[in-house]
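We read letters as residues; the fold follows as tokens. A sample entry reads:
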Amino acid sequence: MTPLELILGLVAAALGWLAWRDWREFRKLQRWAAQPRLTDPPEADGEWGEVFNDLHRHRRATLHRRRQLAQLIVRSRRGAEALPYGVAVLDGKYRLNWCNEAAHAHFGLDPERDRGQAIGNFVREPEFVEYLTAGDFSQPVRLESTRMRRQTLSLQIVSFGQEEHLLLSQDVTGAARMEEMRRDFVSNVSHELRTPLTVLSGFLETIHDLKLDATRVRDYTGLMVPQAERMTRLIEDLLTLSSLEHAPAPPPADRIAIRPLLERVRQEAVALSKNRHRVLLAVEGAHDLAGVEGEIASVFLNLVTNAVRYTPENGEVHIRWRSGEDGAEFSVEDTGIGIDPEHLPRLTERFYRVDRSRSRETGGTGLGLSIVKHALARHNAVLEVDSVPGKGSRFSTRFSATRLLAMPREAKV
């Protein structure tokens, strides 16, 4: 074999070895790339080693970025969960991608089960459908939730990114209720004052325009007096309610002598009853109360007066005071007409009446239980109501032990 042939043979062998090596490393790369879940690239020498090292570095950088992105998503979702309102992420066609727990509570959405579903499938209220169709999201829309009774939601869509949206929902039931109460308050005050003012104005015009004898004038003025008294009671109750709302909490050291106060309350109940009811008083315990006597007297009198007014003739009104180490309870129980369950949660609202006509007949202003509620709140006490229609009602006020003072020895007798 000539030297040239030897050289050519060596070159051919070298090229063959290089081709075999490249094929082998390429197959390694193929097998590695074909894995369902990539691992670190295999080891290799030479130029292929550099390629695999570059792939290794690229994979590590990609994994690092993925971990950072995953942590960012987790933090974002945790932040969304901590928000005081619902958050639902929607795509360009308003289909659900994800939602937080508040949105789940508001609409019944499940971030896994309902992914890809149109939000209109879950929020079907006409106001929201119209809001979504109009596409003007500059202002929120308010609607009554069909999932929870008497729940009001404020909804607004915010666009971000490329054709992506956030549906933000907030429970504004409290604010809506306060606004409703404000409107009712203004309407009720106007109505309550308008009626007696109309009567007074009519009589005054009659007296002014007609020549009436002294007897007729006296009759008219006699009819005007109850209307004026009614307006006076209403204004006094409004002023009382306003002062209770804005006055500082009563000092804990001012003593209210309970036994004399309860005796006065019973006497006023007997006078109001005019011997048409049995009014009974029971006192257990040896404690007085710390607070403002005028406010507590107003609470007791309001509850007892209501019991007398709404108890038919020959009925009974039981007034009880119990005190001990765990606190005190003042209760008024009657055998009156009772109250239907649906009215109980609203009894302490201003001007709320179960029976408007009967309330006016008995001389009530509709503010008594509101005054009771605010006066008790200032004394760290609560009002509880139990009632059975046709059988009677029981109104109880509970005072904490921190408001009790031991009675003086002479008062225990």
Notes: The first strand starts at residue 86 and ends at 90. The longest helix spans residues 46-82.
